Amino acid sequence: MDFTEEQVERYSRNILLDDVGGTGQRKLLDSSVLIIGAGGLGSPAALYLAAAGVGTIGIVDDDHVELSNLQRQVIHFTSDISRPKAESAAEKMRLLNPGVTVIPVMERLMAGNIVSVIKDYDFIIDGTDNFPSKFLINDACVLGGKPFSHGGILRFYGQTLTYVPGSACYRCLFQTLPPRGTVPSCGEAGILGVVAGILGMIQASEALRYILGIGELLTNRLLYMDQLTVEFRKLNTKPNPNCPVCGENRTILEPVDYEQPACSLKEGPAAKVNL
Amino acid sequence: MAMRIKSSIIAGMIRHAENDAPLEACGYLAGRGNHAVKMYAMANMDGSPEHYTFSPEEQFRVIKDARKEGLDIVAVYHSHPRSPSVMSAEDMKLAFDKSISYVIISLEKGTADLKSYKFTKGTVEQEDIEEVKLNFYEIPELYIHELDAFEKVTKDFIEGSLAQVEYRAHRVSFGIYEQRTNGTYMVRIRCTAGGMTPAQLAVTADLAGRYGSGRIHVTTRQEVQIHDVKVDGLGPVLRELLTIGLSTRGGGGNTVRNITVPEDSGISEDEIFDVTPHSVALTSRLIRDQDSWNLPRKFKIGFASAPGHRERIIVQDLGFEAVIRDGRRGFRVFGAGGMGAKPMMAELIHDFIEEKDIYRVSTAMKRLFDKHGNRRNRYAARLRFVWKNLGRKEFLRLYNGELDQLDKDDMGLLFNEIINEGTSTALESVNGEGPEFELWKSRYVLGQKQAGLTSVLIPLSLGDISSVDALELARFLEPFGENVLRFSQAQNIVLRNIPEGLLGNVSRHVAKRYPLASGPSLSGNAVSCAGADTCRLGLCLSRNLLSAVYSELGKTGVDLDGLKDVKVRISGCPNACGQHHGADIGFFGKVSRKDDRSYPAYYIVAGQGLNSGTPVFAERLGEISARNVPLFLREILEAYAAAGGAETGFSGFIESGRNGKIRTILDKYSQVPGFDEDKNYYFDWGADEAFSIAGMGRGECAAGLFDIIDHDADLIRKNIEGLSSERDEDKIRTSLADIVFSSSRMLLVTKGIEPRGRAEVFSQFIGSFIKKGLVEEKYSGIVEMAGDGDLDGLLKERDLVVELSQAVTALYNSMDNSLRFPGEGELKTPAAKFKDLRGVKCPLNFVKVKLILETMKGGETLEIFLDNGEPIENVPRSIQNQGDEIVSRKRNGDYWSVTIKKS
User: Fold this and answer.
1) Is B511 a domain residue?
2) Whole domain around residue A77: which residue ranges?
3) How far apart, in Å, do the first and last CA atoms of chain A sit?
């Protein structure tokens, strides 16, 4: 468990924590996390995970930085406009902590490439902005036995849950994509930047605590937050036996691509959630 | 911000207003900021019931006086004899200085009503008045947190998760000492200048009754102690003391101790000026400084207010003697004095410093001590050893270096004048007449420089007062105001500011409760330390001896009133807690032996001249059994009275009688009969069991043990010297046997072993020294021979016998001051791992420790070096918080060695 002087000092506040210590810091340095989406959720998650010393961080995004992103995607700066988001994010993470390995992936994850991209990572953070991606990531992680954190945001609201093999997956709660046009996207409905920030950090916290093996993950629980009232509610869930990807009679046996506009989310976890 | 005004000033303003009514009274309040510490009653030039004007001359004089004392005018006060305490239009007009406060005393409603006003942005607003009560120090905020931490470690100790030795480190600096009976503690309360208010005394007495032995003990440093407190009572006692403004921090340990002031400061006609305010201000500052709690050894500061008080400061680490130079108040400063087993007169440090500089000087001296004091050897740690080691020139050079680094302006002190005045009490005067009253008055009552007021000494037997008596005294004193009592260095209570007309009341109160008050004052002035019944270091029962002295002196026909100034001082061991170096005739405990039995004895010292031009300590006169001390003392005092008593002076008497009369008396009492002849000599005063050194084990000071060791060392030396010229084989045989015997016995005492008989000496020596590897195995043969009485065998091993004695002597010389030998104690189990964390800041030092500890197995130890200050304060605590154990922490100069055991 040798640390360099620089590491001891850089990570001293982690090491001071009884639940982390040198042992925990070593786990972080030896771990890898993949962040899918270098946007509103991915930005804070990427920065905090790099800062905490997660040894290898993959960052996936095939988009380019736009001026309208900067209101919430804080890893990108004005001078980054038009740069690939994955590249921009990787640069910031390396500047923050040269001691972590950052792997930018400038691709759109589809059924064809997702399995090979996620296979080397210990934990996946879903920071995407559209339902096809969210279901794709869920299916790929469940099928590949990868723990991941789901996150979704809209206006002032956000929701997140964590999947580890055996717990309820995203599809256990939401069997299929909402019909086209029933749910507005961020582009249509708007989003308060801090909502993305808070939720992205909760996802980063899930990743860290998963790696460290401490505390309680948001498994079998859906956290719903309202930043107008600053209310956080946890809804208990359980694996759905009829889930098409992890239930008793599975119908989805490999990742599937769906088509939908970006940045869509139901307003709240209401109707179709199986609790 | 509220206007803070001392209660005595509030009372003073009201009295001024009442006296001048129906005219308006007026004056200035001086101080700093919003804190008024001095009142100037001034004349109202208008002589009017409706307005006032100061005379320019008086105004000028007052402002000049205030400035001289470093004070600003902070308020103008005046009275409204017949109107409410509001600012009238006239008052507004007359309020020329908009930066100060205006205090109005209204007498309209019969009882005085005080209000204070201040201008803010052109409008006048009322401000609160905060009454500052008489306090002999201000407890810093931090103390409250320290108390929390102390309660936590006490809890840990009770629950068994904190080791005794670790707990001691915490409690001692809180003035808490374990007594001789395990599990009982003494709590020492800071009383700067020996001062306490009646209200504080009442609570202290109550605490002593509820948690302690039901008595309060007055110390020679003018503090009070509560004895026999159980460990679970410590927290509650400290907390309740805090509620009445009393702290125990610095009552013990290597800290800035209680600051002493002559008990008559402020009231004596001979004094230069009252030094009480200085001691109060200095204490309040020093007890705020964290570096006051972690010095190489204790640090004692004292003040002298009159020329005759030199003796009070010449034996302290730092002494301030009041002087006036060119009309300015200041101090002559002495340093590096002390008593103890190796006393030294303090040296002159400054011929004059300004009064405001006492904190700066104290801090510089404290820092010098902190840096250069010997922390390894607590017997050579006090400031006087720094002086001895460095020499005058280097000491002063380093001291001046420290002084230069301290900002002159930052460290100036503000002094709250402590007013000595009689109270307009409604007490009905009790007639004090008759010869008994007059005799008591002549013995115990002194006039004050304040006309009509008197000071009364209440002699306490052995410095003790029962809770009940103390509580009744507190109640009795309540009508006399807050500034009414001091504890004296002679362990008595001295009342002050008692109106002469009420002496009858005091006499009546005192006569019933304090038996010594009906006798001559010599007894009350006699001092003894706590002695072996409570002190773990004590050898002899000095308190019981003093009781025996009281009773023996009661039998004498000589007029002891003529001898009242004779200072009798008794210490139970060579540590000078009973201040025997300052004795006219004094005693300090030792262990003596006769026929292989030990008995309690004392060295006699006499003839101090601490107040003379070239001060001298009392010199050793001889030694005497504890049993014979009272008779000896009585006869000495009788001889002194016969020789003219006070007229010759005691030191003159000693000098002239050293080889004559005194020698004769000493010889008369120097015989000690054998145990079978008279067992009394082998029982200390008041003891139920024969005198024994058992229990005076290692780790405790027990300096008297060295006497026992030296006794054998002497025997060895004499025998070896004799051997070289001895031709008689029988005598050589006996000498060799004696050498082996003394060699075997000499160091047993360091292990707390007190052998009964010769056989045990040899067997214990083999068991505790040879088997333990402290002395080589090759000597066991001759030790066994000596045990078997095989003198011929010894004769053949003559060289080995001599070698053994040399080996034991060498071992003795290598013994450290905690009675450990090389290879023993901490050296035996060196820490398995080591990390030097000097120069590493918090919390990185702890991070590094934590990382190392994570790699270690339970039970393994790690030694670290930590810097003084924040690191030593924080890191060990953090380590304990995560559940690992601090085995030891030792200071080495400016860093600490801490040993940690992983849980």
Assistant:
1) no
2) 31-236
3) 43
Number of folded domains that form chain B: 6
Report chain A residues whose CB lies below 8 A from the CB of B848: 8
Q: Which chain A residues have a beta carbon less than 8 Å from that of B847?
A: 8-9, 12, 15-16
Q: Do B847 and A23 touch (CB under 8 A)?
A: no
CB distance B843–A12 less than 8 Å?
Answer: yes
B454 assigned to some structural domain: no
Task: Identify each DSSP E strand in B21-122 by its residue range.
Answer: 26-32, 35-42, 72-80, 101-106, 113-120
Which residues of chain A neighbour B845 with C-beta distances below 8 Å? none
- Which of residues B132, B162, B197 is at a domain's end? B132
Nearest to B367 by CA among B297, B291, B424, B443: B291
Torsion angle in degrees (nearest 10) through CA of B367, B371, B377, B382: -30
Q: What is the DSSP string of B528-552?
A: E---TTT-SS--S-HHHHHHHHHHH
Q: Is B236 on the interface with A (CB under 8 A)?
A: no
* Beta carbons of B584 and B650 less than 8 angstroms apart: yes
- pLDDT score of B555 more than 60: yes
| B181 in the same domain as B73 | no
- Pick the residue of A8, A17, A27 with the most B CBs within 10 A to test the interface with B by mutation: A8
Tokens encoding B440 = 């008591």
Helices (H) and strands (E) in chain A, counts: 10, 8
A243 lies in some domain: no
Helix (H) or strand (E) holding B498: strand B493-499
The parts of chain A modelled with pLDDT lower than 70 are: 1, 185-187, 260-275
Tokens of B387: 């002086």
**H helices present in B83-140, as ranges:** 89-94
Would you say A101 and A57 are in contact if contact means Cβ atoms under 8 Å apart? Answer: yes
Q: Does B902 touch chain A (CB under 8 A)?
A: no
Question: Measured between CB atoms, does B846 come within 8 Å of chain A?
Answer: yes
**Which residues of A are catalytic, by number?**
186
Displacement of CA B400 from its chain's centroid (Å): 27
pLDDT digits (tens, 9 = 90+) for B371-391: 888 765 666 788 999 998 888
Instruction: Name the pLDDT band for B309 (thresholds 50, 70, 90).
Output: confident
Domain that holds residue B81: 3-132
